[in-house]
C-alpha cells in the first residue's frame, strides 16, 4: 500500500515548474499586448509628477486584463521608487470584495495586515487611509478588478470618496489613482458625480486573442513550465485551435496544464494531442457552465431547444424552423410565453456570438431564410443537462 503512495508521490513529471501554469503567475513577457501596455504607460505617466489618473480596461474573458494590469503597476511602482517617490499599489478583486467597506479593508490591510475587520465605518476607514498615505508621503494606485461586482448593488460611493483625496483644494491633497477592470462597460454603471472623474478616452478595450496569438502564449508556457522535449509539437496547435473559439488565454493555459497532469498520471514522458483532447473534454463542462450563467432565460430556452432536438434526432444539424417549434414547446414546459419570431432570431444570434452554436446557410430545397444550427464541440447531452439545472 505505502509503496503505491510513495511511487505516485515520487514519480517523475513532465512539468518542470508547476507555478508557471498557475493563473496568478506573471510572465516576464506579456505577449501581443505591446500597444495596450504602452497606452497604460502614457495614461499613468502623470503619476510620476504626482498627478492622479483614472483609467478603465475592458475586454472579454481571458484577454489578459489582470495580468497586464499587474505587470504594468509593478513596473510603475519600481520606476517611481528609483526616482525616490512612493506609489502604493493595491490590487483588489471586487468579485471577492463586493462592498465598499470590504474594498477599503483590503486597501488598509495593505498598510497594516492587523487592521480590525469590523468596527469602522467607510468614512472612518477613508480617514485612516488618508493618514497612512500622509505619513508615508505616498500616493495611492488602486486596481479594482472585476469592478462591475462593486456596482451591482446600487450605492457605491467608494470611487467618489477616493477621488476626493486628490480633488481637494486644501493642502492635504493626496493623489489617488484608479484602474478599473471589467468585462462589462463599467463607466455606464457609474453615477454622474463619479463618472465626472473619468474620461472616456482613458478606456482601453482589449480584443479576444487570435489563434496565432494564443499559439505564442501557449508556446511560451510550454517553454517555461515543461522539461525540454516533453510536449509534442501538435499540442500547441491543437490547444490554440480549441481556445481560439473564445479567444481566451486562461482556457488555453488550463488545457495545457491538464494535458500535462494527464500525461503524468499515465506515467508517460510525452504530452500528446490525445492528452489535450482528454483535457478538453474535462474542461468543457466547467467552462460551459460558467459561460451559461451569463445567458438570459430565453437564450437558455433557445439553446435548450436546440440541444434537445439534436439529441432526439441524433443529427448534426437542426434547421431554424424546427428549432423554433421546439422552442415554443420548451417555453410551455417552463411556464414561459414564447417570444416573437424576431426575438427568437435575436436569441439565436446571441448564443451564436457567445460561441454555443454555429449557424450556416442550408443547402437546396429549403426556404430562403432557413439556416442550419449545430453545436460545434460540446455534446448536446452536457448542454441540456446544465441548461436544465439553470432553468430550474
Ligand atoms: N498576453 C499574454 N501573454 C502571456 N500570458 C497571458 C497573456 N494574456 C493572458 N495570459 C495568461 O492567461 C491567463 C488569463 O489572463 P488574465 O487573468 O489576465 O485574463 P483576464 O482578462 O483578467 O480574464 P477575466 O476577465 O476572466 O478576469 C493568465 O494566466 C495570464 O497569465
Ligand atoms: Mg481578470
CATH class of the largest domain: Alpha Beta
Q: Would you identify the CATH H-level superfamily of the largest domain?
A: P-loop containing nucleotide triphosphate hydrolases
Computed CA radius of gyration, to the nearest angstrom: 25 Å
- Trace the largest sheet across and list its strands: 2-3-4-1-5
Q: Output mean pLDDT.
A: 90
Globally, the shape reads globular
Low-confidence stretches: none
Overall number of domains: 3
Instruction: Supply the helix-strand structural class.
Output: alpha/beta
The second-level CATH architecture of the largest domain is: 3-Layer(aba) Sandwich
Tell me the quaternary state. single chain
Pattern of helices and strands: HHEHEHHEHHEHEHHHHHEHHEEH
Largest β sheet strand count, sense and barrel closure: 5 strands, parallel
CATH topology of the largest domain: Rossmann fold
Count the beta strands. 8
The rounded distance between the terminal residues' Cα atoms is 45 Å
Strand proportion: 5-15%
Per-chain topology:
Elements: H1 2-10, H2 34-44, E1 54-58, H3 65-82, E2 86-93, H4 100-111, H5 122-136, E3 138-145, H6 148-152, H7 158-167, E4 176-182, H8 192-195, E5 203-205, H9 211-225, H10 234-244, H11 249-265, H12 273-292, H13 297-313, E6 318-319, H14 320-333, H15 341-353, E7 358-361, E8 371-374, H16 380-391
Parallel strand pairs: 1-4, 1-5, 2-3, 3-4
Antiparallel strand pairs: 6-8, 7-8
Helix pairs in contact: 4-5, 5-7, 9-10, 9-11, 10-11, 11-12, 12-16, 13-14, 13-15, 13-16
The structure holds adenosine-5'-triphosphate and magnesium ion.
Magnesium ion binds at residues 65-66, 145.
Amino acid at each position: 500500500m505505502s509503496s503505491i503512495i510513495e511511487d505516485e508521490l515520487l514519480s517523475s513529471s513532465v512539468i518542470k515548474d508547476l507555478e508557471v501554469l498557475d493563473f496568478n503567475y506573471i510572465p516576464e513577457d506579456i505577449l501581443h499586448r505591446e500597444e495596450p501596455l504602452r497606452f497604460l504607460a502614457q495614461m499613468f505617466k502623470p503619476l510620476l509628477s504626482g498627478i492622479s489618473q483614472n483609467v478603465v480596461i475592458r475586454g472579454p474573458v481571458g484577454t489578459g486584463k489582470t495580468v497586464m494590469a499587474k505587470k504594468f503597476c509593478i513596473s510603475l511602482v519600481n520606476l517611481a521608487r528609483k526616482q525616490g517617490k512612493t506609489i502604493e499599489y493595491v490590487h483588489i478583486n471586487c468579485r471577492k470584495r463586493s462592498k465598499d467597506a470590504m474594498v477599503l479593508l483590503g486597501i488598509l490591510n495593505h498598510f497594516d495586515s492587523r487592521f480590525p475587520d469590523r468596527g469602522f465605518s467607510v468614512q472612518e476607514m477613508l480617514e485612516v487611509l488618508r493618514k497612512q498615505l500622509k505619513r508615508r508621503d505616498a500616493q495611492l494606485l488602486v486596481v479594482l478588478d472585476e469592478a462591475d461586482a462593486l456596482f451591482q448593488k446600487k450605492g457605491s460611493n467608494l470611487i467618489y470618496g477616493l477621488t476626493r483625496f486628490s480633488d481637494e483644494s486644501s493642502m492635504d491633497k493626496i493623489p489617488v489613482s484608479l484602474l478599473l477592470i471589467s468585462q462589462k462597460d463599467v463607466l455606464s454603471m457609474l453615477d454622474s458625480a463619479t463618472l465626472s472623474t473619468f474620461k472616456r478616452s482613458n478606456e482601453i478595450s482589449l480584443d479576444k486573442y487570435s489563434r496565432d496569438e494564443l499559439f505564442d502564449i501557449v508556446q511560451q508556457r510550454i517553454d517555461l513550465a515543461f522539461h525540454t522535449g516533453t510536449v509534442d509539437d501538435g499540442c500547441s496547435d491543437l490547444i490554440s485551435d480549441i481556445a481560439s473559439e473564445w479567444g481566451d488565454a486562461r482556457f488555453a493555459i488550463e488545457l495545457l496544464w491538464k494535458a500535462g497532469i494527464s500525461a503524468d498520471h499515465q506515467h508517460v514522458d510525452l504530452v500528446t494531442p490525445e492528452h489535450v483532447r482528454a483535457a478538453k473534454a474535462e474542461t468543457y463542462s466547467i467552462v460551459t457552465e460558467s459561460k451559461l450563467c451569463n445567458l438570459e432565460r430565453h437564450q437558455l430556452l433557445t439553446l435548450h431547444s436546440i440541444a434537445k432536438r439534436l439529441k432526439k434526432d441524433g443529427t448534426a444539424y437542426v434547421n431554424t424552423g424546427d428549432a423554433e417549434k421546439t422552442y415554443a414547446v420548451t417555453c410551455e414546459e417552463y411556464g414561459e410565453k414564447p417570444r416573437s419570431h424576431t426575438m427568437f432570431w435575436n436569441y439565436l444570434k446571441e448564443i451564436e456570438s457567445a460561441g454555443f452554436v454555429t449557424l450556416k446557410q442550408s443547402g437546396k430545397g429549403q426556404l430562403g431564410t432557413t439556416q442550419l444550427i449545430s453545436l460545434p464541440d460540446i455534446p448536446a447531452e452536457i448542454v441540456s443537462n446544465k441548461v436544465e439545472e439553470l432553468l430550474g
